[in-house]
Amino acid sequence: MARLIRNTRQQAAPRAAVRHLIVCQHDGRFDSTVEPAAISDLIQQKDQIVWVDLQHPRPEDLALLSEEFGFHPLAIEDATHFHERPKIDAYDRYYFLVFYALQYDVEQRRVSSQQVSLFIGSNYLVCIHQEPIAAIDETIRRWQRHEHDFGEDVSELLYHLLDTIVDEYFPVLDELIERVEEVEAQIFDHFRPESLQEIFTLKRELLLMRKIVASERDVLNVLIRREAPIYPREMTAYFQDVYDHLIRITDSIDTYRDLLSSALDAFLSIQSNQLNEVVKTLTIASIILMSAALVAGIYGMNFDVMPELRWPWGYPFALGLMAAISLILIAIFKRRGWL
Question: How far apart are the C-alpha atoms of 25 and 122, rounded to whole Å?
Answer without folding.
Answer: 14
